[in-house]
Write a structure and sequence with these properties.
The structure is a single chain. Helices cover 34% and strands 23% of the residues. The chain is an alpha/beta fold. The protein has a domain of 109 residues: ANL, C-terminal domain (GMP Synthetase, Chain A, domain 3, 2-Layer Sandwich), CATH 3.30.300.30. A 13-stranded mixed beta sheet has the order 2-1-11-10-12-13-14-15-16-21-20-18-17, with helices on both faces. A five-stranded parallel beta sheet has the order 4-3-5-6-7, sandwiched between helices.
Length: 574
């Protein structure tokens, strides 16, 4: 199958200016196609068609309007589900402003975010209700709680009204039957704020990014031009993050892709076997875990040499347009459902070794780049011409420039286009700091752009180490090289000492590796790693060499998108 056939012409997507139009398009083009499948118990699942899903969204819009929710801020809290998605779509489609809340947050942080965003109503899943109940006493603005996926027997204290999603939908259907289109909002303003989505807080700051339908559609239209999603996809990332919500779930809607929802990471492999997805969106840490699992499977089979030979053979055949990878490696792909052939990856730096391994067995990785403030995608590798080491081609809806490039052409990446946010909610000073005087958004990422508009990332501006000799060192670049050189280093963080005179590192080793080599203490682990570390240093340029390293016995704390929270590293530095 030629990837060029997937590319969509501009006129096919440029007519859409709101997310609601994408849903309406799916309702009309794929009415009886399954939109979502989700597990209800460990063994039973439910599903809904695009036509029925869109009808639920319209019913919710009518009910919300009847309950006085117009122009109000409405939070949605819970695990990924078709109910969560329907609430989001209803709110951003002419009702008010949706505020997704991370279900992993502690109750006190939930309360802070709900108060700050001036939330009046919270749509909460039954599973998250207990945590919300702990937050409600501190919530000054919340007046109504609507329980999703509940049966009507939940006790909710601390708010004025308790409603149930299924009742809201039934009420909305009655209103539509009685009043017709008059029960719905008159129009959806593409330029009006419709979403406040909190950043993941990897730097310690947790800001509310204000987005409009125009911003969101910048991502959806751009992704539609460069990608086309296959028949069945698998959702594993938190839905409250813009990457999963927009780059995956909303983009799938345009293509009529069935999204199968994973209910728990501990059932991920079991659910992949059940749903047999053709694609998914993941973060690098998930791909690394996937590769380790597959490599272990190959090693335990005793067929490593056979595998290596077949990788070389299939790679050579691919060069003459004969692709037998999926047939040759069918047994390896079987635990992943047998049909997985593409993964869109973003959120952090991705190892090229990981990409090469998965490509070798027939799973293509399309690396991308984004930031919440850009709704969130700025670049993605297209199906037709993915480029090694690049985070992708700029979306057709975006422009980029490099500020103050160094001798290698690397500088801060600045963006402009439909995707770029309106600003941070109630934070004009923070907003002004991230925009240049001529209106470009400062990403804080360092990289360069080639002549074909492919983007390359080398690190974060705030993490940049500037040595006394004037050399600029990207810690992310060294971390990637260290993990590649010493495979049993699972995680590492590179930083400068207090005088900024030398580079140091903290490493977390693979627990199985430590156990199999009897490395019970951090001291034993460091002594074991020292020869490999010295070999690594000898191959690095002098100014990029690590002066010393330490071993930590615990994994680094991460955000819910699995990015290491560097601002929390100080506590374990020596």
């Amino acid at each position: 199958m030629k990837p060029e056939k997937f590319l969509i012409k501009p006129e096919e997507v440029n007519d859409f200016s709101t997310v609601y139009q994408i849903m309406d398009h799916a309702r009309k083009k794929y009415p009886q196609k399954t939109a979502y499948r989700q597990m209800e118990t460990r063994t039973d699942e439910s599903s809904i068609t695009f036509a029925d899903f869109a009808a639920n969204v319209d019913a919710l819009r009518a009910a919300m309007l009847c309950h006085g929710c117009e122009d109000k801020h409405i939070a949605v809290l819970g695990e990924t589900s078709q109910e969560w998605i329907s609430v989001y779509l209803a709110v951003v489609s002419g009702i008010g402003v949706c505020v997704p809340i991370d279900k992993e947050l502690p109750p006190e942080t939930m309360a802070t975010q709900l108060n700050f965003a001036d939330v009046k109503t919270v749509y909460c899943s039954k599973l998250c209700l207990r945590k919300l109940l702990k937050a409600l006493p501190e919530c000054e603005t919340v007046k109504t709680v609507v329980v999703m996926r509940g049966k009507g027997d939940e006790t909710v204290e601390g708010c004025e009204r308790v409603l149930y999603l299924q009742d809201m939908i039934a009420e909305g259907r009655a209103l539509l039957k009685e009043q017709g289109p008059a029960a719905l909002p008159e129009q959806v303003d593409p330029a009006a704020a419709c979403l406040i989505i909190y950043t993941s807080g990897t730097t310690g700051a947790n800001k509310g990014v204000v987005l409009s339908n125009r911003n969101i559609m910048g991502t959806l239209r751009g992704c539609a031009r460069l990608l086309h999603y296959p028949d069945v996809s698998f959702s594993v990332l938190p839905v409250n993050h813009s990457y999963e919500l927009h780059a995956h779930i909303m983009s799938c809607m345009y293509c009529g892709t069935t999204v199968c929802i994973n209910n728990d990471l501990k059932y991920l492999v079991k659910n992949m076997e059940r749903f047999q997805p053709e694609m998914s969106c993941m973060v690098p840490m998930m791909l690394d875990l996937l590769v380790r699992k597959l490599k272990k499977q190959i090693e335990e089979s005793g067929k490593q040499e056979d595998f290596d030979r077949m990788v070389l053979l299939t790679k050579a055949l691919c060069k003459i347009h004969i692709d037998i990878r999926r047939r040759v490696f069918a047994e390896i792909l079987k635990p992943l459902g047998g049909k997985l052939r593409m993964i869109i990856c973003g959120g952090a730096a991705l190892s090229q070794d990981t990409v090469d391994f998965l490509s070798g067995v027939g799973i293509q990785i399309y690396n991308g780049y984004g930031i919440t403030e850009c709704a969130p995608v700025a670049a993605v590798n297209p199906l037709s011409k993915a480029r090694k080491h690049s985070v992708g081609h700029l979306l057709p809806t975006m422009e980029a420039r490099i500020a103050d490039p160094d001798e290698d052409g690397n500088g801060e990446i600045q963006l402009r286009g439909d995707n770029v946010m309106q600003g941070y909610y109630k934070a004009p000073e923070d907003t002004s700091k991230v925009f240049t005087e001529d209106g470009w958004f400062r990403t804080g990422d360092i990289g360069h752009i080639d002549r074909q508009n492919f983007l390359y990332i080398s690190g974060r501006l705030k993490n940049l180490i500037i040595l006394p000799n004037g050399k600029n060192v990207s810690p992310e670049e060294i971390e990637d090289s260290l993990r590649k050189h010493i495979p049993y280093v699972k995680e590492c963080v590179v930083y400068a000492d207090e005088e900024n005179s030398e580079i140091r590192a903290i490493c977390y080793l693979e627990p199985e590796y430590r156990a199999s080599h009897g490395l019970d203490t951090a001291e034993q682990a460091k002594a074991h790693m020292t020869p490999d570390f010295e070999q690594f240093n000898s191959e690095m340029p002098g100014y990029k060499r690590i002066a010393d390293f330490e071993i930590t016995d615990t994994e680094f704390e991460k955000s819910t998108t699995h990015k290491i929270q560097r601002f929390k590293i100080d506590a374990i530095k020596k």
